[in-house]
Amino acid sequence: MKLDWFLILFPFIVLIISSANAACSSDTCPTGGLWSVWETIDDCKTKCGACNSATYTRTCLSTSMNGGCACIGNTTISMPCGTQACNYPRYNGSGVICCVGSPMIINNWYQCGPLKTNSTLACCPTGGYWSAWGIWMKQANVVKWSRTRTCLSGELACPCTGEAIQSKYGCPCPAISTITTCDSTTKTPFNVRTPYYSSSDCTATIVFEATNFRKEFFFTNGTKDWSTLGWIDSTGKCNVQDASGFGSATSKAGSFYKFSLLCNTTTGRFYGRFLEANFVDVVSIGQFY
Ligand SMILES: *[C@@H]1O[C@H](CO)[C@@H](O)[C@H](O)[C@H]1NC(C)=O
Ligand SMILES: *[C@@H]1O[C@H](CO)[C@@H](O)[C@H](O)[C@H]1NC(C)=O
Ligand SMILES: *[C@@H]1O[C@H](CO)[C@@H](O)[C@H](O)[C@H]1NC(C)=O
Ligand SMILES: *[C@@H]1O[C@H](CO)[C@@H](O)[C@H](O)[C@H]1NC(C)=O
Ligand SMILES: *[C@@H]1O[C@H](CO)[C@@H](O)[C@H](O)[C@H]1NC(C)=O
């Protein structure tokens, strides 16, 4: 345990310290995927000197990155635990010199190695790698909504750029407009009233014509009365549904149905159900004739 040790081990120590992440060259998947750091929940029998081993696990972070990047490698591994520096030689409970790995000197202390090192990335994506945004949460007594996300690659010496928290003074779901075109149906959209948007309640109130007074909005099929309702979602797709039940208001000219859509705090889009029509991810809405 003299100075000659240090000379032999010096190149090895330098190797451990110098680990940097190369930048990812494009939007392609990092080779081998993007793993979290190794973590253990085991209670290590020794607190220093790397005298014992523990089971470490890690998770694949890149499953939803660039459309899905699979990770290559084991998700569990057995590695030394209790890796803080302490004097060498060190004896375990049975009086045996313990050292998982080889003795080495770091900061003038004899230790057992290899020490647990930072996991490294194959490459660091530009701007780091964020988790998906969490759900929108309303702050009590204020019309303010916020959502957060975490930098998954930050612990891996690959910092994220951008905000980890996003706030909106108002409902996170944007107001719904009325449909002016809809390619997927031969029926003609009819603009009813522009939905009433309540930013503080986070609701969008829709009004549909309930009679054929102005247009042929509903038709009788068997014993049921039907009307065609539709909406355009955030992908631009027009979703059209026939909903029964409109006939109940047939006799009264100018009758209408009024109902509210609610804000989905995960997607930040309005959703809801009216009669048999199920609305999801609503950007524009309409009734057809
Ligand atoms: C991965 O796990 C398998 C099965 O437990 C084992 O044979 C292999 O050596 C492990 N690979 C590494 C790199 O630890
Ligand atoms: C000490 O180390 C020896 C050799 O690895 C092992 O057989 C023994 O079980 C250890 N004792 C304790 C208390 O960990
Ligand atoms: C990883 O590296 C960073 C910077 O070099 C350091 O601050 C951090 O403590 C390291 N984490 C582990 C678990 O070694
Ligand atoms: C009338 O109802 C039947 C059974 O529900 C359905 O198959 C048919 O397509 C409907 N006709 C129209 C014009 O919607
Ligand atoms: C909100 O959207 C998410 C993602 O599409 C979906 O899983 C969830 O069921 C929706 N919540 C409601 C209340 O519709």
List the defining traits of the structure above.
289 residues; mainly beta; 2 domains; 10-stranded mixed β-sheet; 3-stranded antiparallel β-sheet; 1 helix; 17 strands; binds 2-acetamido-2-deoxy-beta-D-glucopyranose
The end-to-end span amounts to 90 Å
Please bin the fraction of helical residues.
under 10%
Structural class: mainly beta
Domains counted in the coordinates: how many? Answer: 2
List the helices and strands in order. Answer: HEEEEEEEEEEEEEEEEE
**Which segments are poorly predicted (pLDDT under 50) over 5 or more consecutive residues?**
1-20
Total count of strands: 17
Q: What value does the Rg take, in angstroms? A: 31 Å
The largest pleated sheet is described as: 10 strands, mixed
Task: List the bound ligands.
Answer: 2-acetamido-2-deoxy-beta-D-glucopyranose
Task: Please state the average pLDDT score.
Answer: 79
Tertiary shape: elongated
Strand content: 25-35%
Total of helices: 1
